[in-house]
Amino acid sequence: MTITSYPNIITIGGGVGDYPYFMQVARGLVDGHKRLFKFGFNGDIDTAVEDVWDAGGEYTYQSSALAMSVTSDAGATDNGVEVTVQGLDANYDEISEVVTLAGSGTATTSATYLRVYRAFTSGSQEATDNINVDNGGTTYARIQEGEGQTLMALWTVPAGYTAYLLQTDITTFTEQNGKFAVVWVQTRELNGVFRTQDKFALVENTHHQEYQVPLPIPEKTDIRIRAKGSSSSSNIELSAGLDIIYIENTAP
Question: Which of 67, 228, 243, 248 is the most buried (most CB within 10 A)?
């Protein structure tokens, strides 16, 4: 069953299923509408600008679709671990693939990825060390030991969709007195450059920004959250989340 009209309360089955619109989207019942909570963590931010993701530093974006190597730092110890890789193909269409680490603790995707925005261990065997998703020495995703999936406040809007940013949540912490973080929410449209959509400074605090009128973000646009600390000894731990609904451009 799908839904093609969107009042605040959507009724299914003669009143049995009276739920708010967002709940019906989460249930997969609103045709052409999808939800996304994209969250990331960076455990050591100082004066260099860094993106909020597991590997730290500035994230590198592919210029062409690439096959990915999926490798555990534990090598053969993680033989048999299943990893799901999610992202976009050369046409910016969503793709997902499950690979199984072989005897050497590595596997290669059969699909090629223009963007990798999530990976997670999807079988019953837990990895015993970090798992990297990379190509040619460049890391595009990392599952840190004990997390079970990537923590990346990065995403790209698929082809044929418009995303609507509903809210952002940022939390910072440091044991260094008086140190603060400057945080950017940025987007880059196809063939464009990154533009700042929101910016704020935090001193060991949480910033919740709800967009009463959601920010529309067109297809094939990269979204990232990045930050820098106020000194070389800031040692800031920062978590960030993006709450998004993305809707097919052909949806009513």
Answer: 243
